[in-house]
Amino acid sequence: MKNFNNLKNTLQDSIFTWDYFTDFEKVKKNVKKIEKELNLLNYLIGKENIEEEFLSLVEEYPKVRKILPILIAIRDDKLFCTPVITDIETLEPENKKYIFHDPIDENIKKELLIFFKESGLKDIFESKAIKNLVDYCFGVEVGFDTNARKNRTGDIMEKLVYKFLEEFCEENKNLRFIEQATQKRIKEFFNYDMKIDKNSRRFDFALFDKAKNRLFLIEVNYYSSGGSKLKATAGEYQYLNNFVKSQNIDFIWITDGKGWLTALKPLEETFIHNDYVINLDMLKNGILKEIVS
Description:
alpha/beta, Restriction Endonuclease
């Protein structure tokens, strides 16, 4: 008999591993893209006639302008939707993205100097507070990357489930699994036909028992904190369960995290409605063997 308390009482406090905090590969890739421009700007560090040197550099190498916003820790796309006040008397915010992209003229040179001085970059270059802009931007990119941690939570959960499925299939030779399971990939790997409700439908995993010609579709997620979308999430997985079950396909929802403690009612409703709602602790304790037997 299914026991909701078992699910509720074994929700994980955390699934974070050390690689959750910073994606250094992405950081290195982003810095590599602008390394040439950064090295050109390195020329300005410690220069005496800094304003003249700055304008001379951007005139000779106008492409270096596109990376100036990164030096004050703002992405180009964010700058586009962030008007800036440069005239204290009028207090009128203006979109200044054009000064980093449009052909240089006298007005843009004037605006670039205002940016250079008022952003604090002039002082940073003059005082040699930065020794190397490539190293400096590596740190800036690490800071940017902390904003992506929320997106990595799902990746970590998928990685954990992947390891369980990998070990489980090694022990059970009739079983195979794939990740990012679309209708096309399921047909390609398992020669199994299924209907989909929308072209973009993609399941995190598909597990196939070739001896029984039985397909299990798996979705995984983790919620460390509560939110209004948890109720809708639970409802969505009731719908998915019904949709695949109508095709004699099994649906397994693997979810975890203390965030569910703020939405126990919708979670319990889905637990009762669906055949298989499990967490990592249940996975660790061998529930997959019960499900596929």
